[in-house]
Structures are given as C-alpha cells and as structure tokens.
Amino acid sequence: MSVVLSISSIAVIAAFRDQKVSLPLRLSDEDIGVVLDDDGVDVVTVDVNGERPDGQATAIAMMIVSAVNHLAGIEPTNTAEGNADE
Fold it and tell me: What whole-number distance in Å separates Cα of residue 10 and Cα of residue 13?
C-alpha cells in the first residue's frame, strides 16, 4: 500500500514563519552551501565540516532551496542563486 503525503503551501509557509524563517529560501552569494531566508539570515549549512567538494555542497543546498520553495508554492525565479537586491 502506497501512502501519499500532502501538505498545503499555506501550511509550509506558516510552519517556517513559526520558526522565524522568511520565505523564499536562497543560496548565499558569499558562503558555499549556506541557505539563507528572505531576510538574509542563515537557515542551514550543507557540509559544515567541508568534507564534500564545493560543487556538491552547492548542489545539495540548491536542492533544499528548490524543494522548500516549491512546497511553499514560490516560483523558482532567482531564489536558487542568491538575492538580486544585495
């Protein structure tokens, strides 16, 4: 039997907001593998010990950004490559 798990965009946004994380998420322009919220605050760091190549850490961080933003119903315009406003 297959179980399908579904969560609404509103629930995702509310859950992050409850943790003081502003969406959309984005990659840091300055630090490899660092995911920031819309306010520029660190949310997660991929490979904090530096055991993976930079490209791999960046790819993993980009997948996290893309997945969370997708679940939140946010279009993928420039959210994976940093903030154009900085």
Answer: 5
pLDDT along the chain (86 residues), means of 10: 83 97 97 97 97 98 97 76 48
Please give the pLDDT value at position 82.
53
User: Where do the domains of the chain lie?
Assistant: 25-86
Give the position of tokens 């055991």: 51
Q: CA neighbours within 13 Å on the CB side: how many for 10? A: 0
The pTM of this model reads 0.81
DSSP annotation of 54: H
Taking the C-alpha atoms of residue 28 and residue 5, their distance in angstroms, rounded to an integer, is 30
What is the residue-wise DSSP string for 66-80?
HHHHHHTT---SSTT
Residue 33: which of 49, 14, 57, 11 has the closest Cα? 57
> What is the C-alpha separation between 86 and 73, in angstroms, rounded?
23
